Amino acid sequence: MYVRRVSVFVLISVLWLGCLVLLWGCGGSVPGTNFVAKDEPWRNAEESSCLAAGAVRRTSSIQPHSALGGPSVCGTEHPFEMSAAMGGRVVMRPPALLRCPMIPSVDRWVAEVVEPAARFHFGSSVAELRVAASYSCRPMNHVSGARLSEHGYANALDVSAFTLADGHTITVKGGWNGDRQERAFLRAVHDGTCRHFTTVLGPNYDANHRDHFHMDLARHGRDGLMNICK
Ligand SMILES: [Zn+2]
Description:
About 35% of the residues lie in helices and about 25% in strands.
């Protein structure tokens, strides 16, 4: 009797440990079709508190959108479609699908970085941003088997060009090593972007980013507060 109890206890312990090892082994990961995603509870918590705080005001250029993703780990419950920043003054083309915390960050970035840089370097307002990517359920840098990109959580925006009110368009691809004015403008925008997002990647980072600025609100480092600005 005693022996049988001990064997049941051992069996349960082994099964329990097995589950634990399995979870640790995967790092709580959920293998996707072509990416790996971690279980990160902060994402839902952050989205909920952003929504509860009313951080996004519905306007003609910022509209709620139906849930993205699901049943996969991709997406977000309450995304928004952002077709312009600064109260409709700066058009985003095509409109971006973004989760709640991204909307005020993009808005502030346009108002406090892009617009002042356009005025300083060209004496003109910014009128339009070319959106190269927003929500996209894919691995980082499209590399199969890599971690799910922040784009997969609608937590990232790629911008490839800026059109001014006078019609002048500055592309990241052509201007990064272009004339003095465009180079200075794009570097000012790149550096300023790092004040508003936790990850900023541009042409100096790698060839994948030679034609756009990537910005997202991922959490980096142990405390989640580290910034990546490249
Ligand atoms: Zn990107």
